[in-house]
Amino acid sequence: MRKSSTFALIPVLALALGITPACAEHPTEHPQGAEHPKVHSPAVAPSVTMEDLAKAIEGYVQKDGALKGGYFLVYDPVAKQPLALTLDKVHKDRLSKVADNTYFACADFKTPGGKIYDLDIFMWGANAGSLKTTEVSVHKEEGKARYGWVEENGVWKKK
Questions:
Q1: Nearest Cα residue to 100 out of 125, 83, 118, 122
Q2: Who has greater pLDDT, 131 or 94?
Q3: CA triplet 2, 67, 85: central angle to 5 degrees?
């Protein structure tokens, strides 16, 4: 296989591995001041708590990394390459319900060289035991945001 063909397969492999890359758009930092979607109640949902969501994300990252040599692999559409990451922490103050059975959390990851990435992780499920990751996107690289969030008619969208 030629080298150019190999790199063309990376996005396909990322999708096959369940990694959904974010839009490669580069807007200004935090449109309308919204860094992340927000929820209006302290619990994410009656059957899914913030702690449940954090544990589900930590479990997903741990299980995925165990299958891939100890690293959580995410395709970076801006750098056009996969990132090998380890979980630093899930921001438990940034866990939100964004739609029926759809939840969001922000987590910090590090590369082996120490570069910090903030990933947005979305999960779907009716209860804590059924949560599944539906999207992972690179929100920030070394503190610099690649997109922000805006609320349109009660629905949070990336901008």
A1: 125
A2: 131
A3: 80
Rg (CA), the chain: 16
The number of beta carbons lying within 10 Å of the beta carbon of residue 70 is 10
For residue 103 the two structure tokens come to 């939840």
CB 111 within 8 A of CB 84: yes
Where helices occur in the chain by DSSP H, the ranges are 3-16, 50-67
Question: What sign for the dihedral angle of Cα 83, 23, 13, 18?
Answer: positive
Q: Is 81 left (phi over 0), alpha (psi -120 to 50) or beta?
A: beta
pLDDT digits (tens, 9 = 90+) for 125-138: 999 999 999 999 99
Element (H, E) at 151: strand 149-152
Task: Answer yes or no: are the C-beta atoms of 77 and 24 closer than 8 Å.
Answer: yes
Task: Tell how strand 116-124 and strand 72-76 pair up.
Answer: unpaired
Kindly state the DSSP code that residue 38 receives in the 8-state scheme: -
- Cα 17 to Cα 49, 71, 73, 146, distances in angstroms: 27, 13, 9, 23
Does residue 14 surpass a pLDDT of 70?
no
